[in-house]
Automatic annotation (TrEMBL):
This is TrkA protein. The lineage of its organism: Bacteria, Bacillati, Actinomycetota, Coriobacteriia, Coriobacteriales. The chain crosses the membrane at residues 6-28, 40-58, 70-95, 142-159, 166-191, 203-235, 247-268, 274-300, 312-332, 338-360. Gene3D superfamilies: 1.20.1530.20, Regulator of K+ conductance, C-terminal domain. Residues 469-540 form the RCK C-terminal domain. It comes from Atopobium deltae.
Length: 540
């Protein structure tokens, strides 16, 4: 009940709700509730992170986030390494920590926290310009595995284990990625083969797949968190019956484990030690906020030509939270000889990070002119697609389209649909390809050149615009009428137009995926190319 009250207070005041959950735990500890079981806390933290990371991947719309994927992945890998190293050397040279303990501290707090970042974005409805929200979502959802790998390296050295560090890193990454994809493929094969929902086993199966993936990956020496994130992305971007039920379940479960985790972490802390480590924690947090993260952001994102105000806000969004504290507990339980109180130092860092960055982000968003009032971060169109029959598609307006140079009121789509958004390229470059594309990376969705317009009746449509259109969706429950055909260089269809194929009346090519991953909605004049994947609808 107190947690629900904390959520209500957070929504009204703008205070990060996760900070209030921590405060609740600290208050109960100060009131006399004794809890110091680090082993139990480690188990709860690991289970919670598994749910949070899997759900973060599951709700990532890859098609919409793909334009920001490379910058995000760069930050989630190289960015974590740079931030962790810089923080570690700061602790070594300035705070006089032992070298590998300092680097362990940097690794523990090296990743941003998905739960904290998403909580602040959603609670303040902060939609950001230039495709920044998907970038932050992918970065914060996928950078924990990198931090985990760095922690494994530091602990191996502190424990004087006779292992090959390059081999350890390779195993963590290779088995994590490979097993994530393999388990995703296996799960989809089971889902399509058996009717689990009819027996009430669907949610149980997904949960078993999640825990099984983590366990198998750990046994093989891989990164279980990375495997879970890949598994989540793979399953979340597939269509299957009762997918909404999975969303409902994990939406509630992720909230529950976040409440439990932050409350437990607050309960595990000791108020006297929190006060004792305020100076150290504040210095480390300030260094990360003002130097370590901005330097890594500006250095790595310069390749992608992102804007100054965007880089500053991304630097500010590097919030530390549950993952860092959970990793600190794991390090304490590892048996490594530590001269520092890693848990309470990290705890203080996260407290300051949640408090300062949580309050600064809404203000900085407006000051830096990064707020996009024409859209909402609550869904990036995912929420309604997952939780209702309402679906969105995007259509590119070609120069020869009858909609070109007309206002919305002049367009009669002759269908039960609504124009939701117009995406326009500031450069004004028209698409002359002559094909209707649903690629997630059209010209109007570049990382920095997008203008997003909420259309009214007077909005005029131009060539090159991408129209986001909403309507009631359809889902083929059997999936048996669809067949995927790969057109290789020797296939009889290669280099031929669809109208030349003489398909039976009961067959229709509904979609083509190019080798560059563009999705083409074909017409009779569309010419098939080598390495195309053709989705064929057949009704006999």
């Amino acid at each position: 009940m107190l947690a629900l009250l904390a959520i209500h207070i957070a929504q009204k005041s703008g205070i990060p709700s996760l900070l209030l959950f921590l405060a609740l735990g600290i208050a109960f500890k100060a009131a006399g509730m004794h809890f110091d079981d680090y082993q139990l806390a480690d188990t709860v933290a690991s289970l919670s992170l598994m749910v949070i990371i899997f759900y973060g991947g599951f709700t990532t719309n890859w098609n919409m986030a793909k334009a920001a994927a490379w910058p995000a992945i760069t930050l989630a890998s190289a960015g974590v390494v740079l931030t962790a190293a810089a923080t570690g050397f700061f602790a070594f040279y300035v705070l006089r920590f032992e070298l590998w303990e300092a680097l362990l501290l940097g690794s523990v707090v090296g990743s941003t926290d998905f739960a904290s970042v998403s909580s602040i974005l959603v609670s303040n409805n902060l939609n950001l310009k230039y495709n920044t929200v998907p970038l932050l979502e992918i970065e914060s959802g996928s950078n924990d595995p990198t931090a985990f790998t760095l922690i494994m390296v530091c602990l191996a050295i502190l424990l004087k284990q006779d292992i090959s560090i390059p081999l350890l890193v390779f195993e963590q990454v290779f088995f994590g990625i490979t097993l994530g994809f393999l388990m995703g493929w296996f799960c989809m094969a089971i889902i399509r083969r058996f009717h689990l929902a009819e027996d009430g086993l669907f949610i149980v199966f997904i949960a078993a797949a999640m825990f099984g993936t983590y366990a198998i990956c750990n046994v093989l020496g891989g990164n279980g968190y990375l495997a879970l994130y890949i598994l989540g992305i793979y399953l979340g971007n597939k269509e299957f019956i009762h997918k909404k039920n999975v969303i409902f379940f994990y939406d509630g479960m992720s909230n529950l484990v976040e409440i439990a985790l932050f409350f437990l972490l607050g309960l595990l802390s000791e108020p006297a030690k929190i006060v004792q480590f305020i100076p150290v924690g504040f210095l480390v947090m300030a260094f990360m906020l003002l130097i370590a993260r901005p330097v890594s952001i500006f250095a790595l994102l310069s390749v992608f030509k992102t804007r100054l105000n965007q880089n500053i806000l991304i630097s500010l969004a590097g919030i530390r939270g549950a993952a860092a504290i959970a990793f600190a507990i794991m390090a304490v339980n590892s048996g490594a000889p530590l001269a520092i109180d890693l848990f309470h130092i990290v705890f203080v860092i996260c407290l300051f990070s949640l408090f300062l960055q949580g309050f600064l982000m809404p203000w900085a968003t407006k000051v830096l002119d990064m707020y996009d009032p024409s859209d909402t971060v609550l869904n990036t169109f995912n929420y309604y697609q997952f939780k209702s029959p309402f679906k969105f598609i995007q259509l590119r307006v070609k120069p020869q389209s009858p909609w070109c140079n007309k206002t919305i009121t002049e367009i009669d789509p002759q269908a039960n649909m609504i124009f939701v958004k117009v995406l326009r390229d500031e450069s004004g470059a028209d698409d002359e390809s002559g094909e209707k594309t649903t690629s997630a990376e059209p010209a109007a969705e570049k990382l920095t050149d997008t203008v997003s317009i909420v259309p009214s009746g007077d909005t005029r449509i131009y060539a090159g615009d991408v129209l986001v259109v909403g309507g009631e969706g359809f889902f083929d429950h059997s999936g048996e009428e669809l067949e995927e055909i790969r057109v290789d260089s020797q296939h009889p269809w290669v280099s031929r137009q669809i109208k030349e194929l003489a398909l039976p009346a009961e067959q229709l090519i509904v979609m083509i995926q190019r080798a560059n991953h563009d999705l083409i909605i074909p017409d009779g004049n569309t010419r098939l190319k080598a390495d195309d994947r053709v989705v064929l609808l057949s009704q006999f």
